[in-house]
Design a protein that fits this description.
The structure holds three protein chains of three kinds. By secondary structure, chain B is an alpha/beta fold. Helix content of chain B is 23%, strand content 16%. In chain B, the strands form 13 sheets. Chain B has a six-stranded mixed beta sheet. In chain B, helix 7 crosses helix 8 and helix 14 packs across helix 16. Chain B is globular and about 85 Å long. Chains in contact: A-B, A-C, B-C.
Amino acid sequence: MTVSPMMDSPRTAAANPPVQPVQGNMGQAAVVRSSAGGPVAAEPTALTPVAKLIDVSKCIGCKACQSACVEWNDTHPEIGANVGVYENPLDLTPDMYTLMRFAEYDNPDSGDFEWLIRKDGCMHCAEPGCLTACPAPGAIVQYSNGIVDFIQENCIGCGYCVSGCPFDIPRLGRADHKAYKCTLCSDRVAVGQGPACAKACPTKAITFGTKDDMTALAAERVEDLKSRGYDNAGIYDPEGVGGTHVMYVLHHADKPGIYNDLPENPQIAGVVENWKGPTKTFGLAAMGLAAVGSLVMGLMTRSDVEAEDEQRAADMVDRAADPAAPPEEQV
Amino acid sequence: MTNSWTDIKNTDLVIVMGGNAAEAHPCGFKWVTEAKHHRGAKLIVVDPRFTRTASVSDYYAPIRPGTDIVFLMALIRYMMENDKIQWDYVRNYTNASLIVKDEFGWKDGLFTGYDEEKRDYDKSSWDYVIGEDGYAEVDPTLENPRCVWQLLRAHVDAYTPEMVERVCGTPSDRFLKIAEMIGECSSPTKTMTSMYALGWTQHSKGAQNIRGMAMLQLILGNIGVRGGGMNALRGHSNIQGLTDIGLMSNLIPGYLNIPTEKEPSWESYMKSRAFKPLRPNQTSYWQNYPKFMVSFMKAMWGDAATKENDWAYNYLPKLDVPTYDVLRMFELMDQGRCNLYFCQGFNPLLAFPDRGKVTRSLSKLKLLVTMDPLETETARFWENHGEHNPVDSAAIQTEVIQLPSSCFAEDEGSLTNSGRWLQWHWPGAEPPGDAKLDTWIMAQIFLRVRDLYLKEGGVFPDPIVNLTWDYADPNDPTAEELAKEMNGRALEDVTDPADQAKVLAAKGKLVKNFTELRDDGSTSCGCWIYSGCWNEDGNNMARRDNSDPDETGAYANWSWSWPVNRRTLYNRASADLAGNPWDPERPLIWWTGEKWTGYDVPDIAPTAKPDEVGPFIMNQEGVSRLFTRGMMRDGPFPTHMEPFESPMANVFNAKMRGNPVARLFESDVAHLGDSTEFPFVATSYRLTEHFHYWTKHNVVNASLQPEFFVEISEELAAERGITRGGQVRVWSKRGEVWAKALVTKRIKPMICDGKTVHVVGIPLHWGFVGAARKGWGPNSLTPFVGDANIETPEYKAFLVNIEPAVGEAVS
Amino acid sequence: MNIDLSRRSFLKLAGAGVAATSLGAMGFGEAEAAELAHVRDFKLVATTEARNTCPYCSVACGVILYSRKDEQTGKNRIFHIEGDADHPTNRGTLCPKGAALRGFVNAETRLTQPMIRRAGGTAFEPISWDDALNKIARTMKDDRDANFMTLNEVGIPVNRWTTAGFLAASATTNETAWATYKVVRSMGIVGFDNQARV
């Protein structure tokens, strides 16, 4: 096994992957945050923050990103039906981590019609709501390069990550009850490669590199769009979640909502944000709940969870399990 | 393509009309987004639908399907009216100054010489006035009313912006904005590229659509230059190669022709192919025709082709009709005059128009042989699939043999892309099960037929038993052997004509390229334009040097392109009369004072003086043609013709239906519909999630676009009571389909001739085998009508009706 | 269990089938993750690469075929296909068709043996290569001998065979095309066409 020459984060997705064994640089040693008090590295490997930039103005909605994502991650999306729209499947699923969303927009200012196509998927927030909400220790981690990843072995399938996500991204598998979402191809990034979607994207609407480089590229693109009359072109890197490691270039950055409800000012849900102290214990509690009937239940004898927290937790569980807002795959 | 995919990055303006490049060629379209990003280029899309290409365009205009000629002629009119002409280019590099016969004219939508009975033109008046010196007469001032320029001016006069609005349904302000953007590219330092595909070819006048844009590009000086050109985006990975190698009814590899009955002898065949220059000093490269033809005959029949027997000319079939194209073959089949049919990687049951007729025709065959890596609907045309293929199997007597073949991942060889690059590929696996390489299959069929003739004798066995088949393993010719055979070799020492002592290619060696081919039988060459692909330097198609000096986009050492590794056709026209690049910022080739040099292989003799020899060396005139003489069946200029099924009459001649000389069989006339019964205009197309009828076998692509649908406007949906996602029935004079309704703002009703015209969009990727849901294709509905010049079926403009489907009968 | 979640919530969540099995392995009181953070093993390690081009449209994107030996068949099996970043046209990118090429190569509907459908039949039945090819050759010879036109009505040699036709593929190699051309033309078939128009 050779050691990867790319000890730091990759700068591009336009490279051919190695076929020789390489030592990846993303693992426990690079973890800076872990859900529910899961282990973090004492002195995490300092990887350069990365970002995926999605330039909506270059996107042709071809779904190459979806295709490449399925191929790389070996998921098995089902063959659905056409319900009169271009989205297929209709929503993100545990087998479709990314989805082109199509919006037909009559621009009231120009009088022109626009077809706004946005690649939806995990934004890899700097302040990830999913991680904050997750009650399972080590089920959601954040690496020093900014990637937020799910460790399925530790996932208890409670769906809190779905409620905690301001972008409504994670989906629970029906069969295994584990939460899934875009990993930013952490397995590729670890060996110096960019994500599969960014490599595949025919028009380079999706690019990948360091967050600094992507921010600079985004600025260049915004300038080009302004020169074409898109006065409100801009970068979507929302502060409410501390910025994101997936950013958009939008022609109408003043109206993110027209791009299939991209949140104007995403925030970590209040219930998650206000509840920081007892996270760890709550995580235990939730797991105990899940483990009811098993022998380990008896181990759960101590708790300093307050009644208020209990009620919040109950609400969240209710919400997570409510058929009206199911965290599971919606077909 | 005259240029290459990577050259598109050099453009200033892209017009996508007659195609949908972002959707059908996404990775080639990358070079459009690169040009936009790095050069500030603009993108114009003209299409009946607001496509995915339109979604990233700078300007979009709708157009009624089948009216492109009006739009294009109006653009030419605009350029002439507003002096948006690259004058030096037009005067020197086009036939604008040549004088046309007095008899030529146009009236009521028809050119001179029309014979209604024969549905054909007598084209004798469509030609130049030839002077006593044997050359075409010219007027360099372009003032003579009979010069091409003045005739063109008169011809386009009717095509006003108002006419565009009336016929095309394109608002005139949109048309004018586009005309203005295009007009900027008449500057020698600004270039437009045209990217088109089957949106222009699949009409009964498809070739004239393309002529229209080619003429506009010539007037703007955009042919031969970086970032310019006429760029046909071929639909399949090697349809360029299959066409180059002449796998068509009337072709011999390298765009030579199969003789007709009017050419019973070698002499008569060669007489009409003398290609004498029509202007002084001109190259008229086709004068080398005999060298390519004799070398081809030697490649086919070796020692059996001799000077004495006219190179075995007798072995070639002689045509009684211009072509035995697929429409004609299915017509013959339907008449019971074809017994045996082979489909190699081809699915005609979904690909050819009027599926009912296709099924009926296949049912009359004795034997159908299919060779394919995948299941096809054609191989199972006899199998009942309910409403998706409602046949009575027992009543169909056709025997079908289905042979499993390899796919790209399992064989070795070259494919020719749209930019004429021949790229070698290597296998990554073996064919599954007992599937075999296509080359093995063809060898087996041949050897077994040959053996029967050798054993039993039979009718005219000569061309079969004498066919060159000297492969190391005759049962299994290798790609290398076949490639070298196409490249050509010296059968005797080939010497330099200027110095007989100098041997260019020794006997037995591969020729360097087609300049070493001879017409005396001393060379063989399967496909002259591919000569140079695998010579004594090795397999040039396998070259993988991706360097690009000065980032011109040429990539001259990546693979190999025909002809002679030239990347941009007509590149001589990228330089002015003195040999200097029109645009100093984008040089391609230039004259050093002694010879041509530059980034590309010059498309002219290396020492041909720039002010003497014209840049269009393949043409007898040495210049390009705004007026095509008698080379096209339906006119030397494009003139507006309605589709055969149209919501309005031809504004020039209400009695004229479609293209008056298009491919139309008597038996199909009754199956044409009119707008009272079928009020809506339908058009067919690909979706980006699928490739033809292949990817429905792929579960990933099937998940990305699982089910057949049709697209209609919100207005039409409201008018017919159709809901989004609801089931609809669409029918034409020839058949019916059921689909989901995709109701969209991206299709808007147009007003043509005061009438509202609704468009129904019908994608083509579904059938009854594979992973995706069962469905239909547009060919259940389309008319059995073909283009006048190349017989392409009219898939892009026909009439249908639509209604909500009763119940949930399907899906 | 000290946390008092409502019974309703409890039932819903338990009913959702939350896995409890990992709990025991979790070192529970430590509130530590059972599994340390890790990324998926890089799946292309120790594979064979082959350079190829996409068989779909005419852009002809460079692709890399990644294969490993399939222990069952003893043949190489392609398990991943990705764009070739060295290719000047596509630079490693692929469209949704190209990115999913693996599914074409390994499709369930790939043909693996010759089949024949008899006149009036309702199903395909297997046939050996030898029998299939001999039958094809026999049919060709017989039809050609019966219907080949050597002279036209006015006695001019025309040497054409119009009762047989051949549709050539759109994605075979140039070398296959040349072999096909030779075979078809030598027999005098004029109903010869390709997929350029559709």
